């Protein structure tokens, strides 16, 4: 059996331990449940977004970024697809300044 060691803020550990205790499970079991869900669905079980995400062509969450890198939509091809084009356009604009 593998062992994972992570460092988290003391308050986070205490708060989450209490929440899991209210559910009748310990911290280790709660983390295992999370990992099993990721394994089963092959994704993080909630949407991740940036507080500073813009409403333009840039990916605004991790799922979109991973999809783009995998070439997972018809609009993107290769590794990064339109993301690379966007970054190249941004670099070109920066070079002009």
Please provide a written account of the structure.
The chain is mainly alpha-helical. Among the domains are: 10-41, no CATH class; 62-96, no CATH class. It is built from 4 helices and no strands. The chain is extended. Residues 76-81 have low confidence and may be disordered.
Give the tags:
single chain, 97 residues, mainly alpha, 55% helix
Can you give me a brief rundown of this structure?
The chain has 97 residues and is an all-alpha fold. It contains 4 helices and no strands.
Present the secondary structure layout.
Elements: H1 10-23, H2 27-41, H3 62-70, H4 82-96
**Spans where pLDDT lies below 50 across 5 or more residues:** 76-81
Largest beta sheet, briefly?
Answer: none
Order of helices and strands: HHHH
Structure class? mainly alpha
* Proportion of helical residues: 40-55%
Q: Total number of β-strand segments?
A: 0
Shape from CA axes? extended
Output the number of helix runs. 4
Distance between the termini: 55 Å
Strand content: under 5%
Give the mean pLDDT.
75
Radius of gyration: 19 Å
